[in-house]
Amino acid sequence: MRKIEANPRSLEIEYAIRDVVIPASRLEKEGHTIMKLNIGDPNKYDFDTPDPIKDAIRKALDIGINGYAPSSGLPCLVDAIAADERSRGNMVTPEDIVVTNGVTEALQMLFFAALAPGDEVLVPGPSYPPYITYVNMVGAVPIPYRTIEEEGWVPDVDDIVSKITDRTKAIAIINPNNPTGALYDAASIRRIGDIATEHDLFLISDEIYNLMTFEGETPSTADVCRDVPVITFNGISKIYLAPGWRVGYLAIRDVEDALIDIRDGIMRQSRARLCANSICQYAYFQALIGDRDHIRGTMSKLERRRDISYRRLNEIEGISTQRPGGAFYMFPRIDCIEEGPWKDDKDFSLDLLREEKVLTVFGSGFGAEHGSGHFRIVILPPEETLERAFDGIENLLKKRL
Ligand SMILES: Cc1ncc(COP(=O)(O)O)c(C=O)c1O
């Protein structure tokens, strides 16, 4: 039989964070132990879902939440999400919420509803890969805007303005940021909001790490930019340490019905895919109405790991890194990339894996233009693992330079 052609766009999909696992698994099969600094899943390290949230899963089974949920989400969860967003100044109502199978699904729904082929969306550079991949999948164009490394990876407002065209529809903000760990303050967000107002754009605000900050709080973009339409994302994965449960949401805070059709396109998709996992929705509801005491413990553990990582990486000749304000990532620069034997950052990460068994994600996986010459690590592993991994990076550089 002749080969049946695939959609060529599907063959262009890449996800560096998981793609790097393939060579690492090969090494593991050969008997090597790999120090994994690649995946943003706290549960792969010494963090676990809080007991009350696990208990909520058992309760959901007992009280019979085993059927389909309404397409936009279980009413109790939708109400709790709206109340939570309002407490942060994002004045949404339950009708503005769609519960999804993770923020990942929310992103797909939004981009499919908002972007026609050829439309452009400004995404942070470097960027969490789905902001590139999913925009490409619908035939639209992700345009990365620069974030300024030397200033802690804050958005470069002039660069944003210079990249707006008559095809631009939205500006995406990830705060705190993956992969850089940057935490943007209200003034930075407001400056982006002013650009959006001036050019009739809407804002996409991914706040999935919003309670995971080391100092200060994450401003709600919708609160700071009340005159701009904002679609906010959040979910259970990171803050509540349950990424495998796949629950998230999008919250549409419109202005003068600017998003009326996009909202309709999102709602239609939500109905066509029935609903998000109902049992896990119930657990997310319990998480939102329960206390959030576990976050303090998580962040104080992460703060120690961040401090160790920041010190150790900056002590290595040829590497430098910024200090993250939130989330659990760092995006160190390979200052010595020109001097070493490596073709590029991908080659560096593969060499580090083969030689020292340290698994990181190459920076260009977060967008070639702004990610090249870097690598991403997570600061989630226990301190001893981090120390050994940094010994490995140090060894590699000493050997190769
Ligand atoms: C910025 C950002 N958004 C979304 C996600 C994925 O969220 P979810 O697990 O809810 O699909 C991640 C996961 O790493 C992320 O870093």
Description:
The strands form four sheets. The chain has an eight-stranded mixed beta sheet, with helices on both faces. A three-stranded antiparallel beta sheet has the order 11-15-14, covered by helices on one side. The protein has 16 helices and 15 strands. It has helices spanning 8-11, 16-19, 21-29, 51-62, 75-87, 102-114, 130-137, 157-162, 186-199, 221-224, 260-272, 278-289, 293-315, 345-356, 368-371, 383-400, and strands spanning 35-36, 97-100, 120-125, 141-148, 154-155, 168-174, 202-206, 230-235, 248-253, 319-320, 329-330, 333-334, 358-359, 361-362, 375-378. The chain starts with 7 loop residues before the first helix and ends with a helix. Strand 4 (141-148) and strand 5 form a beta hairpin. The longest helix is centred in the C-terminal third of the chain and has 23 residues, at 293-315. The radius of gyration is 21 Å and the shape is globular. The protein is an alpha/beta fold and 401 residues long. Helix 6 (102-114) crosses helix 11 and helix 14 (345-356) crosses helix 16. The protein has two domains: 8-48 and 294-400, Aspartate Aminotransferase, domain 1, CATH 3.90.1150; 51-289, Type I PLP-dependent aspartate aminotransferase-like (Major domain) (Aspartate Aminotransferase, domain 2), CATH 3.40.640. The structure holds pyridoxal-5'-phosphate. Pyridoxal-5'-phosphate binds at residues 40, 102-104, 128, 174, 178, 206, 208, 235, 237, 243, 248.
